[in-house]
Design goal:
Layout (H helix, E strand, L loop, with lengths): L1 H15 L11 H12 L5 H8 L3 H13 L18 E9 L3 H9 L4 E6 L6 E7 L2 H12 L5 E8 L14
Antiparallel strand pairs: 1-3, 1-4, 2-3
Length: 171
């Protein structure tokens, strides 16, 4: 038991270090915990502990630390169609001036699920989830295009979602 506690403490110390770019350093055990939760976000800590070689308490502490550091979130992922959101689109936005200011304004919109500042044809890509075409038109025309600094937008309406996965975090 003592060696498990010592191993857990030294693993915690290694896990708490930050890499050179300021992001948390993730050891193999933390990555294995993330992988377990990506397979099943409701998996009990005891089962995770058994799979990764830690006690339930050590897993609980690791998970809390990963949450606190912003490394991961544990959320329920829905199919937008089944909960009343029939229209999704990716909107490319070209900006004059401060790109970060427009990106921040987009993140404040409840319909916007994903915002990325890019280098390429668009300054920003924003994924939008709406109830219907009228709702999408309202968001793009009256809210996004109305933002000071938005030069142009181009919309890519989703016809069918073929793949949506969140398993890329540990590969």
């Amino acid at each position: 038991m003592h060696s498990e506690v010592v191993a857990s403490r030294s693993a915690e110390q290694r896990d708490s270090r930050e890499s050179r770019n300021g992001t948390p350093h993730l050891d193999a055990v933390s990555l294995a915990i993330i992988e377990q939760l990506q397979e099943d976000g409701r998996r009990p800590y005891a089962a995770i502990g058994k799979a990764v070689g830690l006690s339930e308490a050590a897993v609980r502490q690791r998970v809390q630390k990963l949450l606190d550091q912003g490394v991961m979130q544990i959320v329920a992922v829905t199919d937008p169609l089944t909960v009343g959101f029939r229209r999704q689109a990716m909107v490319g936005v070209n900006v004059e001036g401060d790109v970060e200011k427009i990106a921040e304004a987009l993140t404040d919109m409840s319909e916007v699920e994903y915002v990325v500042m890019t280098a390429g044809s668009f300054d920003i890509l924003a994924e939008i989830v709406c109830e219907d075409d009228d709702h999408l038109l309202d968001v793009i025309n009256k809210r996004i295009r109305a933002l000071p600094g938005v030069r142009s937008t181009e919309s890519f309406v989703y016809l069918k979602l073929k793949k949506q996965t969140y398993m890329w975090g540990t590969r």
